[in-house]
Amino acid sequence: MAYPTVDTPYGFKPINRFDGMPYAGATNQYPVTSGQAVYNGQVVAFVTGGTVSPVAMTGNSSIYAVGVVVGVQYTNSSGQTVQAQYAPASGVTNVIAYVVNDPAAEFKVAVTNSSSVVVPVAGTILNSSVGGVTGTGDPATGNINSSINGSTAATGTNLLFRVTALVPETIDPTTGYYSEVVVKFNGTWHQQLSTVGTAPA
């Protein structure tokens, strides 16, 4: 069976670790900043007060993050504890995000332009630094359509991600270009490797 066409971005999907170990599903739980919706596959960062908020990856350079959301827990208006793909910005309390914060974690992701349109790239993107595209969350699926911006590929160190592998199933046999790659957080832009902390509330 042919690999499905990658026609829309789908967020960041954890698949393994940079050191070759398989990804075992490990997460840490962090409280989410009040009034912030969070979605599966979304990049988040610590903010002042010890909570996490979605990362706006506009501009791409000098952006910090702690990891990727793979689910949430919250208390609904009936006082019930709910586990879900996403949490809305209002009508819920005690929102906790399950975050893959391992600095060695690798994520499969679609390659797009800054408008979230899939634009395949040459294999020479391997080991480049790249910026992200924030994307839009979908309450129907609980997922976000974030991606990496292939046009930002550079050798610089001030971009959030590093391309560590190509996804061979997505190669276009005509152009030799790839619609998906594998990335990890780039060096000290991961907040728990950085010397820059966040202030308490």
What characteristics describe this protein?
201 residues, mainly beta, six-stranded antiparallel sheet, five-stranded mixed beta barrel, globular
Give structural notes.
The chain has no helices and 14 strands. The protein has 201 residues and is mostly beta strands. It has one domain. The strands form three sheets. Strands 2, 3, 4, 5, 6 and 7 form a six-stranded antiparallel beta sheet that branches. The N and C termini lie far apart (53 Å). The mean pLDDT is 94.
Sum this structure up briefly.
This protein has one domain.
Structural class designation: mainly beta
Number of strands: 14
Count of individual domains: 1
Low-confidence stretches: none
What's the helical proportion of residues?
A: under 10%
The major beta sheet can be summarized as: 6 strands, antiparallel
DSSP strand (E) fraction? 35-45%
Query: Oligomer, anyone?
Result: single chain
The total count of helices amounts to 0
- Rg (C-alpha, Å): 17 Å
Distance between the termini: 53 Å
Q: Determine the mean pLDDT.
A: 94
Order of helix and strand elements from N to C terminus: EEEEEEEEEEEEEE
Q: What's the overall geometry?
A: globular
